[in-house]
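Is this the right way to post structure tokens for a design question? Let me know if I should format differently. Anyway, here goes:
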């Protein structure tokens, strides 16, 4: 898979390209990404972008007005400067990339609260034995991500899994760990604190 990022200074464009790259890697695809110019948004867990021309057959990622194959809608943000980067990332991911988004302090604080709850649950699960990944939940999240990158739907599945007491804690842990390889929300951050 080849990606080309048209606006490497636009965080949402870069986040969308990063999510496409991560889903591609999960599907065991080799992903090559170039950008209009080099950019480093590592603070938001986005892989560094290197400058380069679009590779043959590249999927172009850019804002809606750039005529790209993956058009990312406009977004605004205010009051997130002191937020944990993972909470800001989650607040952005809660919006479909094709829909306009406004990320305010309430959205970031809500995302931070959800991260704290998910991390707390994972820390509890990690004190018990590991179990195999829950196949149905793993498939449902990957299906959502492969459906035009429906991250909000995948996050809803994650939230449902966290609260599903019918699934063994060790299985929930392993399933969430696998999903976080795509979401990059640092969900295991509290493991080892119990």
């Amino acid at each position: 898979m080849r990606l080309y990022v048209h606006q490497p200074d636009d965080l949402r464009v870069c986040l969308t390209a990063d999510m496409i790259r991560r889903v591609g890697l999960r599907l065991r695809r080799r992903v090559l990404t170039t950008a209009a110019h080099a950019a480093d948004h590592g603070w938001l867990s986005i892989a560094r972008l290197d400058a380069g021309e679009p590779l043959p057959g590249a999927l172009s990622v850019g804002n809606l007005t750039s005529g790209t194959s993956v058009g990312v809608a406009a977004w605004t943000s205010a009051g997130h400067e002191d937020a944990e980067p993972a909470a800001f990332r989650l607040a952005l991911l809660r919006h479909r990339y094709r829909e306009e988004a406004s990320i305010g302090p309430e959205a970031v604080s809500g995302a931070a609260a959800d991260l704290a709850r998910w991390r707390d649950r994972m820390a509890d699960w990690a004190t018990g034995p590991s179990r195999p990944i829950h196949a149905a939940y793993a498939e449902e999240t990957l299906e959502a991500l492969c459906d035009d990158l429906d991250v909000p739907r995948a996050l809803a599945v994650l939230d449902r899994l966290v609260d599903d007491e019918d699934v063994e804690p060790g299985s929930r842990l392993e399933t969430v760990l696998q999903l976080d390889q795509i979401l990059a929300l640092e969900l295991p951050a509290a493991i080892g604190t119990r």
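Format looks fine. Someone answered above. Worth noting: The first strand starts at residue 2 and ends at 5. The chain has a mean pLDDT of 95.
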